[in-house]
Write a structure and sequence with these properties.
This protein is of the alpha+beta class and 208 residues long. The protein has three helices and seven strands, in the order ββαββαβαββ. A four-stranded antiparallel beta sheet has the order 3-4-2-5. Helix 1 runs antiparallel to helix 2. The longest helix is centred in the last third of the chain and has 25 residues.
Amino acid sequence: MTETPIDAHSPEIVTEGTGHHEQLGDRAELDVSFTGYAENRADAVRELGRRVAAAEPALELPGLVVRSRQFWVHNEWQGDRVVGCRAGEDIALMLTDTAALEEVLSALVGAEPTGLHGPRWALADPAAAQREAQRRAVEDARQRAEGYATALNGRLGALRRLSDAPSHGGHVALAARESGGPDVRELGLEPEPVRVTARCVASWTLLT
């Protein structure tokens, strides 16, 4: 059977579809920072080095990956007078074994950092979740288009074009090891769902 070619000027319906897929995070991102303060830069850096060295055992726990380290140093001012110096190191971490989160957090807090932020949950391989979100986005666009076609006393024809839609904005128990760190088991830091979102714009032929 020969298909009737589609007239480029025939009516079309353009719809936007959105699809979401949620999946439990299997990676945890953590940010930890250490600082040292002294009257001069050299002593501030030495104090920082002492604090970071004391934390190295916690940073070397199994399943914990150091993603980046950023060092900084600056003067401390009081009015127009330098009263000391502060040095710091910001460390970005990735935990690949979420079952060890409580152990890792306990060890990191026990190392007495200046700051600790996280966890932010992520996916090791978001490709499958992205494909499912895309499938749902296309299905959403199709359902919207079918509704418009019915409203026009017609029916939906072939898909003409499909593209990503512009983004509309942003889109996270193991007992603690005896390491001198606090017990964080009561904080409820279980893996949370990570939502992957896909948006598309689809153009369909309107058959009348």
